[in-house]
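Annex B, item 7. Sequence and structure tokens for protein A, then protein B.
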Amino acid sequence: MLGAPGGTGKTAYAIAIGLAVALGRPLVEEPVHSTGAVWIYNLEDPREELLRRVQAALIAHGIRPAAMTGRLYLDSGRDQPLIMAVRLPDGSTVATPIADALIAELIRREVRLLIVDPFVKSHRLEENRNEQVDFAATLWSRVADAAGCAILLVHHFRKGGVAGDADAFRGASALVDAARAAVALRSMDDGEAKRFGVPEEERWFYVRADNAKLNLAPRPLDATWLQLRSIALPNGDHVQAIARWRPASVFRELSMNDSADLVEQLGSPRDDGERWSARKQDFGRWGGELIMATTGCSEEQARAMLAAYFASKALRIADYPSPKQRKPRKGLEHDPQVVAGMRLHAQEGEHP
């Protein structure tokens, strides 16, 4: 499942995933576990619009159209509807004959991934009835099993739905429950834009992807970020495509020698005899405060830098005798050998 509020770029993201599978290349920096032919069935837009969107994605990722020969199939629901299930007058639900025809065509084309956009246009059921939506989900599972392919269903969010929450998907919960994976997209919020230095008027072009089947979403710096880009087509039109985006790292502005100085300062006794702490709640001693004061970075970036210093073994936590209390306190301590190695790399012109 792939879900998002309107205008968040879910169709552009689905197309990028389709091209990645067709080519066997991680276009949005997500691993491609199996490659092969991809069939994109857009049930809302006319074929011309689908072609424009695919062309924009090809340009955005530097892909020659000829590379997609025999690898990509495109269809529009306006030309050929794809109604998989209907509700009869007596209230019962049945699969339509097109389900078996679809399986046969998927096998004939040796399709590895079928993208259906949007799911709501693929049935005539009541989307708020769990038993009916479960019937549709089971039917799509049967198609996937019989055809030996993966199926990505693109779905809308309910009004007020929040990314990272499985209940954000519109309609009955049976659909998300039946999905092996559910990805939710949302635009960058105000706080994240300030953290990353993105102007308010531009934050709508930055999209976060979360696993909607997990209760705990990653912190902003660890999240998967995407960027919607306006791509100029040969005819002069501009169409959105999506690509992976990574927040700028404060390390890029920090030389290796400056980074070594910072680690040494973080891991040495302060003038008051105390040591810097790894804990945010140790107000006045948290190492992130020194990092922010030294580099001008945000709190999230300071957290990321501390984590990087711990991962590289440049910093560690050790007990030390505090002048303000009788029992030992925990504080930061640097490894002189790692710092010496950083200074050696600085002489060779490397960055952290």
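Protein B:
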Amino acid sequence: MSEGPIEAEPGTVYLVGSGPGDPDLLTVKAKRLLEAADVVLHDKLPGPEIIESLPEGRREDVGKRAGGERTPQVEINERLVELAQENKSVVRLKGGDSFIFGRGGEEAEYLAAHGVPFEVVPAVTSAVAAPAVAGIPVTHRDHASAVSFVTGHEDPTKAESAVDWEALAAGGGTIVVLMGVKRLPDYTAALCEAGMDPETPVALVERATWPGQQVAVGTLETIVDVSNEVGISPPAVTVIGDVASTRESVADFLRNDYGKRVETY
């Protein structure tokens, strides 16, 4: 591993994942690029401590919030190209991993089409990190030998959903839904209608590794009511499958450095 300050190349865009939000879970390379880049374009999902650590003069908020202020993706793409063509080194910072439901692939294609060199800096995806910090393994020899990652927030211009809930219900294993709080009633009902046992354990992990982390646990049949009772709000990760039940046996011994309120219902 190289030591000392990293050099961010002028005219280059770095597609960087921030991990689940705790600044201690940034990769070494991500941290060093954030310190070196001329400009950082960030979403709302990197942890608040990570965003606040960036000097205001070097950061641009291009975040998107459900039902709130949003920066159109086309404007983000154009801004990345504009800054690179000004010979600036640019970090495009996203929550989790930028290539897992983060539109990083679209940005990479746009940069390539406009002749802009870029580098991808992978990160720990919240699809795995959020369950893990709640004591839930997405795979387990006794419960799940496969895991499916699903977006709960598809392109609104699609004529119909591309997610085959019937196949997921029949496939076994763990289902992890990202950005799925708003549509929780829809896909839990779809899974039940497709034949999944209503008693299947479900966990919601809100703001994993952030100061406001919460964990809500129920079943496919009860989780909507549990979520409403607890007040779960985005960003949150939904874990569906027998692995969610393992939290009960480990929660009393689970320790982390976050100092957050963790509740089970």
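Comment on protein B: The chain is about 30% helix and 20% strand.
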